[in-house]
Structures are given as C-alpha cells and as structure tokens.
## 1
Amino acid sequence: MFAAIGYSHLINHYRLDALPLTQEASYAPGIQRRASRQQGGRLLTLFPAKYWPQEGFVAHLQFALRYEGINLEVLALLFARLGKQELQQLQQWLSANPESRYARTACHLYEWLTQQPLSIDDPVSPRARYVQLADPQLQLAFPRGEKHSRFRVQHNLPGTRDFCPLIRLTPYLQGMMAADLQGLTATTLARYDQDLLRRAAAYLYLKETQSSFEVEREKPSPQKAQRFANLLRQTDTHSALTEERLVALQQTIVDPRFHEFTWRGIQNWVGKDLSYRKQIDFVPPRPSDVPALMGGLLALAQQFQAQERQAQALHPQLGGTRKNPDPVLMAAAIAFGFIYIHPFEDGNGRIHRYLIHDVLAKAGFTPRGIVLPVSAVILANLDDYIAALEQFSQPLNQRTDFDPSQPAFPATGNDAIYFRYPDLTAQAEFLYKALERTVTQDLEQEINFLLGFDRANMLLNDLLDWPGHSRELFIRLVHENGGSLSANKRKSHFAWLQDEELQSATAQVNAAFVTQQS
C-alpha cells in the first residue's frame, strides 16, 4: 500500500489547487531501496520505510525540499494556505535547527514568495556558511546566486518571482548534459573547409526558416522567408532580449496588418474554429498578467547572459566551453516559457523557435555563423513536439473556462501562478532529443547533401548547356524522388529533354550523391 509523501502529501492534505505533479513520491514499506516506475503518465518514485517522514507539515516539507527539489508552484499555494499554527511550526523548526539547510531554505522561500516577514529575529548566526537554495544535482539552477544574509542562503534559482521555471534533472537529462553535444557539433564541422561551411550556413538558415513556417502550416513568401533567415543570422550578435526586440521580431515575421507594438491586450486562445463551435486546446494567461510574466522571462534571459559573461571572465582558458547552467536547459526554459505565455496575438510559434537559436547562439553552443536545423527535426517529429507542448497545456486546459464568442467575460482557471512556475522538464527532454538528432544525423547529412549537389551541378554543366535555375531544379527533383524524374515533373518542367539526355543527366545526379556518400 503506497502513501503519498512530500509534495503529494502537502497537496492532498491542504487541498492545494496545483497542477498534477509529473513526478511524485510515495512511501512503499515493502521495498528495500528507492525505485521508480511510470504510472498514469507520471514518474512515481517509491521510498522504503527508512525515508518515511514523521507526521506533520514540517516533516513533509523537509522531505520535499531534500528529495524532490524546489517546486515553487506548490510552495506558493502552500504558503498562502498556512495558518498561525503552521507558521509557528516553521519558525520553531528554524529556531531549533539554525544550521539546517532545509529550514533556512523553507523560511527564505516563505518570505520571498509571500513578501511577508516571519516573526523571528536574527535566525541564523552571521558566522554560518551560506548554503545554495536549489540543489544543482536535482534541478536547473545557477552556479552562483545573490547572497541573502538573513537566512544565509545563496539564491540560485533561475528567474524571479514573476517567472521561475522548474526543470528536474532526470537521468536522461543528466546523460545528455554529459554527452557534450556542443563539442560534437564543433568536431563535425571541423571536417569541412570554411568556404563550404559558409555556403552550408546560408543553406541551413533558409532550411530552418522554411521548416519553422511549415510547423505552423504556413508557406512564406520569398521576402518573408529571407527576413526570418536574416533574423536567425542575428542570434549570435549577443543583443539583449527585450520587449522592444521581441516586438520588432513580431513585426518582421507577420503581415503588416497584424503588427503589434507591445504585449497583447486581449485574451487569446489556441485551437480550431470549427464554425459551429470552437475547439479550445489552450488558453494562455490573462492579458493583465502578461507584462509581469514577460518581465520575469526577460529577466531570466538577462540573468543567464550575465552568468555566461561571468563564467567566461573567470575561466577564459576554457574558451567559453564552461556551461553551467546548461544552455539547452536554458533554451527550453526561455523558449517554452514564451510559447505558453503567448504574449502576442500572432507570430508566437515562430518566435518561440527563434528563441531556441537565440539562447544557444549567445551561449556559444552553436559555432558563430551556423544555425542547427532544429525546426526540421520538430517538423519530422511533430507528434512528439505536440506531446511535449501538451505536457503543460493539457492539464491546465482542463481547469480553464473561456468562451471566445463572449470575449467580455474573462477566462477563469488560467491563473498567473501556473505560468510563473511551470515544470518544463518534458519540454527540455524533447529539445535535447531534437538537438541530439540534429547534431548526430541531420547536420552532417545536410552538409553532405550540399557537397553532392555541388558535384551534380558541375557534372550537369559539363553535360548540357542549360540555365542554372533549371539545372538546380532538376537535381533537386531527381534526388527527392529517389533517383529518378517523375513523368509529371518531366512533362511540366523538362519536356525539352531528349530521352538519352534525361538518362545521362539522371545517372550523373545519382553518381554525384553516391560518390559523396561513399
């Protein structure tokens, strides 16, 4: 028989209106060591008898902080519900254990989240060493943080009260962080000469642009595609992420009729308009909550950039390879945080994917002048991408009520607290999977395709005297069709080719790509 402990116990006991935990802790008296299992779409961690916390609010809070990390959503809801008796227990816990990391953490978080002081003077000796608030072995945290002398804690949470996401360091994420995809990217690119990489970069920027639009089921005009590709080239300029910059991005990628000049002022929604009814899949936060949420997200981006500059200054001999916190986790926190806040009426999806590149480029994860075709991987794995998005949006949507046909009535259930402290673990895992495939498969394949394309162009130019655009179209159509030109494409584009010319040209294209693959 399992019994809820830690955060699960606190949620049940105090009837907290929290989103379902993606990882829960339970007491299982019949086991000898900790074990984990998937159950109902969540990870259930079982703890043997020796971990059973004593009864009471403080015992379960200490267990949660020690073994489950800092879940600000649950803690904010819990601290708002505490009565006089629980507050006395919280203060007595620290008074009796002034050296306890978890007592100090709990008291600091209470005052930070509620902005209300506890009735306790000089709680910790000024000679006590500072302790980190968040355990970097359990969750995303900064290596350095602001020191708070009252409880002698180093506040290393990523973000502010207005936006501070949770990413738990699962075994998968820990393994990917140790795999050094950044180093693998550099090794892969080092095999090619610089002239080729410059041409490959131009190709990859356009491919990433095209894929990003296709995820939204849009076909951009050549001018709009080029504008977005130019924006991607600017990600490594280290320009700070600000409201003005995001507004400029929005105005660049959407039709001028839908330009916005600040955060949205209406309640938007994501779904389908089926004429007779609206299928609502997700309702972002209320417009009155957006400025504070976006202020918090932008503050997180600026904190990360400052941490990167400080790490580079402290460890210049590492050439910027010292990455703590991990840039992929930070890209997930900022990009997915943005898409859930949905601060504009249009263009949010493309900016969300742009932000992935912006964060990675600033952190030096991708070499200067190169973009990884992440959106192409997203497009090829759209179901997994949607599942990652719905990990957060679906549970929230189940408690949200909004009728788009009556916009005068505000949405309910989409409270700001859920967007302030989202658990983005699943989204971080998805991004790492997409980047792993990008680096280990797609990047080299794209460059090799470009080499094969160049060789085919040269061979066909020697074979026939035909316009360059026509020649390049022929190469692409043959390659995409598995090594032959379809009858329809020949009729519509290459009716002028004689049979012998077609046969020779097709053979040359196939030989060019086979030679490159070998």
Note: The chain has three domains: 3-155, 194-438, 464-517.
## 2
Amino acid sequence: MAQIPSKEQIMEWVADHPDANSKRDIAKAFGIKGAERIELKRLLKELEGEGHLERRRRHYLDAERLPPVTVLELLPPDGSGDLFARPLEWHGDGPMPRIHYVPRDSDPALGRGDRFLGRLVEVQGEDYQYQARLIRRITAAPHRITGIFRKEAEGGRIVPIDKGQDREWRVRPDATLGAQNGELVQAEQAGPKGRLGLPMARIIDRLGDPSAPRAVSLIAIHQHGIPDDFPDAVIAEAEGAKPATMKGREDLRDLPLVTIDPSDARDHDDAVAAFVEEDGGATIWVAIADVAHYVTPGSALDREAWLRGNSTYFPDRVVPMLPEALSADLCSLHEGVDRPVIAVRMRLDAQGNKIGHNFHRGMMNSRASLSYEQAQAAADGKPDAQTEPLMDSVIRPLWHAYGLLKEARARRQPLDLDLPERRIELTPDGRVKSVNFRERFDAHKLIEEFMVLANVAAAEELTRRQRPLLFRVHEEPSLAKIDALREVAQASGFTLAKGQVLHTSHLNRLLAQSEGTDFDELINISTLRSMTQAYYHPENFGHFGLALKSYAHFTSPIRRYSDLIVHRALISGHGWGGGSKGGDGLSPQDLERLSETATHISETERRSMAAERDTTDRYLAAFLADRVGTEMTGRISGVQKFGAFVKLDETGADGLLPIRAIGQEYFHFDPDAQMLVGSDTGLEIGIGQRVTVRLAEAIPMTGGLTLDLLELDGQPLPRGPQKGRRGRSPRPMSTKSRLAEIKRATKRRRKK
C-alpha cells in the first residue's frame, strides 16, 4: 500500500513538473492506486480550496508559479530600454511576478500591449522572476474601455465614461471578473459583435465605486495608463538612500537661499537668492535639488522615472515621478536642512541683461520655506515674523533683481498670455467644495523669471561645452492657426496684422488691445490654442513663445525626467562625477537613446495634461450637477456645425450648445466667418458674443455640460415655429441623445 503524500510534497512535485500535473500524473508519481485515489482527490481539493493549487481542466498548477508556457502581454520599455511582460492570468496571493522578455534577432517586432505565447524560465538573483522567449505572436494590442458595469441576467454591459465613446459594450457571464452592478471597471475588446450588434468586451480590472472619494482622478489614471504604483525594488532603493555628504561639493550654506512655493507644497526643488551690485545690476543664485546624485543611470529608480516621464497633478493627489522618500524628503530643500544642489550663479547688468553665469555642485541650507503669499506681503511692506528678519538680506534684493528681469523681458517680448488658473477645492470626503481662480502675485512672476533665466543658462552652458542635452522646443504656429486667430480677433473687434514674419510682439499687441475688455479671456485662450505644442528634442529649434534662441528644462528634476537629463549633462560636462552609486553623469545608454527619451517624455507630458484636463472637467461637472436648470452667463468660445461652445463666467467651465438647442429655426454653419446663421431670421451666433444660458445637463462621469441658449448679447432669442431641415418640427432631444451629442461634439473639437 502506497503512502499518501503530504500537501507539501504534492505542491513541491507540481512545481517541479509543470508539464505533467494532472491527477493521474500525481497518482502515478506517488504510486497511488485504487481506493487510495479518493484520499488523493480530497487532498487536491483542499489545496485548491486553500488557494495553493489551481485546477485548469484536468491539471493542477501551483497558484504561486507560472506555467512554463503562458500567454503574456508586452509592457512599455523601462528606463533602460528593457522589455517586460505581464501574464494575462495570475491567481497567486503574492504580487504578480516580473517577466523579462528577451527577443531573438529573428523574432517579429512586438509593441506595447501585444499578446504572445511565451516560454518561461525561472531566474534567481535578478529584479525579475522569469525570462520569456517568444513562441508566437497572438494578437495586437486590444482596444481598451473604462466604464460603468451594468449587471444583467446574462453577463452585463459597460457604459463608457470617455466623452469620445458613445457605444456600449456587452460582457459575457464568464468575462465579468466578478464585477458588481455600478462598479467602475476597465475592459478590453473580446471578439466580434455580439447580440444587439454591440461589441464584446471582457473585464480585466475592477476599479471600485465610481462615486467614492478620489474616484475622479483614479478614473483618469487608469483611462490614460498612468503608472501609479511603484515596484518594490524602486521603493527599496529610494528608502535605502542616504543623505549626500560634502565630498566633491562646494559649501554654499552661507548663501541666503530661500524657497518660495504654494502654501500647500509638499516638496521644494528650487531655491533663490539675490545680491544688489554697485553698478545697479544684480547677482542671482538659483539652486536646484541634486536629484542626479540619488537617481543614477540604470538604477531601478531611473528606470521607473523614465517610464513615468513626469509627475501628474490632480486636485486630490499627485502621481509623482519619484517615490516620496526622495521627492518629499532627501531631494526637497527643506528649511534649515543641508541639501545637495546644482546651482547657477548669474550676473545681470543694470538693464537686466545676463552678462555671465557659472554652475556649481554644492551643499545649501535654506534660510526659510516661504509661501507666495508670505513673500508678496513682505515685498508690499507687510512682513510677518518669519519674513521680517529677511527683508534686507533676501526680500529686497530679490525684488530688485526681479525689476531688472522685467525690463529685459519687456525688450524681449515673450508671449504675454494672462490665463487665470482654476483652483478646485475639495472637502475631506473628496467632494467639490468650491471652484475659484488662483490669485497671481509678483512673487509668482519673480520665481518664473528666475527659473527661465536658469534654464537659458543651462542650455547655453551645455551648448558651449558641446554636450548632448534635451532642448525644450516651441516652434512658431502654422499659418492656418494664425489665420483662425485673426478671424477670432476680427469677430471681437480687434486686428492682427497680415503679411509679415510673425513675432511674439505682434501677438502681444493683440493681447494688449483686448486687455480690460469683455474679450480679454477669449483672446488669451484663442491665442494659446493657436500655438504649437512644446516638446523635447536633442536638436535646438528655439522657443517661440518665450522669444528665446536656446532653452532647456533644468529647474524641476524631481518632477520632470528632462531636467534630470540636463543635470547629468552638466555633471559630465564639468567632470563632477561621483554620486551615491558611482557615475551619475550622462551614461552611454543615456546618449544612445536621447532621441527616444525626447519622444517618450514628450508623450508622457501630453498624457498627463490630458488626464489633468479630463479630471478638471469631471470635477466641474460634479460641482454644477446640483445646479441643473440654473441660468448662467458666459461667452461663445467656439463654433462648429454641430453647435457652439460657451465658456461660463463663474467657473471657466466649457459647455456645449447643441445645434438643436439653439433657437427655433435651422442654423447654417459659415466656416469662414466662424458663425452659425439662422435660416429664417438671419440671426448670427459667433465667437465672442455674450450669452445667457440654462444648464440643461451636467454629467460628472464624463465631464460633459449641455446648455440651452436663452439670450444673445443681452437680447432674447427670436421666437416662432420651430423648424427642422425640411420645415418639420424636430422631436425633442432625449437625455440619451443629448449625452451622445456631447460626446461626439467634444471628440470632434479635440481632434481639431
């Protein structure tokens, strides 16, 4: 009679024989026959119930291990350019194992999200658990959906929350992942259309209650694929970092450096100081946290920072580029604490021109952590207990230097946009408490001018030393966009000259014409929309908006990978070297993939901007949801053939006036004049006109706002029989139709 194996023996055998692990294989291995198989079956069921084994068809697998052949999904390259994959199925209690994909030269190219059948080999002593080789590619990356799951008798359906999608998806009963009715889920396309002609999807992640606190930003994080959890190796590396020493550093601790940030700032990555010179000029110091000392090329921290590209900011949270142990501690220039920095000393003449600069790798100690409000109050002659002792050594010299920079700026004529920044204040439970516009002080502008000058110095320094770097590039706008801006200006009663090489000074004259008028915000926004999007590139194409020939990002390495590259270039260029793990300048790999890095971080920046914008839209819709039916004022900010967009005065939110909700006649769209023209009355609706509207619908889940037009330029709309395209009265628009129109309209507008 064979001895029945223990549970531990069974688990060990299953792990060692992944290709032969059916009940029959296990019985044969332990010599179990006849009635003894009943006891073996009982043990296997217990192991399955305890989660130690998983039964797939007639085979048992160790739930904490992956089978030698499994279906994988390719992830984006990490900071070193290495490729990793995730298993499509993982049933273990521990974290999902990390799989390093190693392609052969003969393998077809795979992209992010592609599925493939891979052969796995366990590895030891690495920061990953398996190595994978391609057997065959299965499918390209499937379409993904984020939405609300609606449970039904057979499976359910998903209602997308993306304004750009207006079709629902069906989910089979075996593809729900246990999602509950009303739960926020992430799903992917799962085959052809099912019944009712709807496409099929399978749920791959359950995101919880969409109405829960912090769900709004969580939706954007998942919708845009922003990494929000740090791998264990990255956390361990950050928490294991030690404070920098004075080795290889200049002692800058006697400089009167201070940080000036928002009152709720958690990290401080830049500090400033100034000295008044006898000739009326000034010397400015800008000291930036030496992040490169801690985030060295090829480290786990570096790979994760490259992957993220930048930090992403939401009203309720920050998804940081670096773990908190660095971003909020070792790399944060806290008051009264020694911190390593890379600093630039810049000399200004009496007209505010930079006549020299030099860079230093040193150790500083902040005299004070000031808020913008504190610094401004002190400059206005109302210092508090903290700023009173700093008036002569810090505040007055800083404002003297700022006065010089303002003179230089006026001569340079960078684009002078004045766009109020919205501030969404939340209650402790994550609800919108208020929507206001942030006050903007000279203290804000002072820090901006100091940072711009430091960024210019970094670009010039590395160009002079012929060191590779990433420039911040902003090319001039296209003729088509400038023509569109000119039409907006003319519709608002202003002029933008034609037939000359465009300079920022021409745009500034337009902005000056609108300043103080009802069209001020509209012209500022329209000018911003006419601009090309800035990006990163190894070659220098100048910065149109700032009217600068050479510009690079140097001042925020805690939250931008581009700045970290510039810091490494400065370290290499000056031969500073050193660092917590050896060389911390530009590595050969950094140089090899400089173009790839530029493209990647330009894309992650746009991804963050889109996620932040979507989150703001949803918060604004949530704030206004209780005010449906309320009359509001605003201004027409855009016109298309499907309707008009209105920027509301109180919140700055954008709402849609669908074409069928404007007046009681048919409207023609005149694309040249950017107008909607009534077929019966000749009523013209164009950009810049004042309107009174009624909020018809606010949908927090999508961020969509629908409006009804009541008054145009203070006059009620003409009334009469409501006509359709062929003279028939159209049917009232249902809520579902209205929602679909919002989604389609917003999608078209963003494509433009």
Note: Residues 56-60, 720-739 have pLDDT under 50 and may be disordered.
